[in-house]
UniProtKB/TrEMBL annotation:
This is PhoP regulatory network protein YrbL. It holds the Pfam family YrbL-PhoP_reg. It comes from Exilibacterium tricleocarpae.
Amino acid sequence: MAGLEPFARGGNRLCFVNPDNCHQCVKVARPGFSAAEKRRKKSFPKSLKPLSSFDDNLQEYRTLTAIHRRSGDPVLDLIPRCYGLVPTDCGPGIVTDLITDADGRISITLKQYLWEQGITPTLRQSLEQFRRQWSTLAVPSRDLLLHNVVVQQTAGGALRLMVIDGLGWSDLIPLAQLLPVLARRKALRKLDNLEARMQTLLTTKQRGGPWGYHGYLEPRQRRIENDDT
């Protein structure tokens, strides 16, 4: 990753276009946020947890592969495919699909789309489809945050929503993993909360409030420099 600029920065990780495959994303830990450094900052007894529990990439790899194994290929309409863990000069990285629009640019977040365009008829249609698919598959997730959902613009002009982070059960004992009815109920609640966050963001903008910190891509950040297509 040396010499490359990340196209996005999260709280713990940096996101790069894979220099070996421009259709893939590589996430690595930000400086100061490696698994060892994160555990070192914890107080007793959390500092006794295994190192793997502080490794965001390893946890995401396990989560993505488990969801794909459980739900099959239909879930790849909602989440990126994971290609595994790789060593990089910035530490271990996880490789997933890079979500891009039909024109080849990196897709923007739902947060950015709402801020710039509001709830368009096309977005409303894609939200309804997303809700049906997400609840049917009962995809396990934490809160669906606006900057963790991207809006992919297809060649036909339709939009597709995909969740790129925040997946997996947050419960210490994930009972929903064993009870499909509970899993679907939890998925529906997450969807309702997502709709509420959308309205909160639109109200904030209407009142002249601040954008916030995460989820905005400048035009230059959306361009893929090593795209040979």
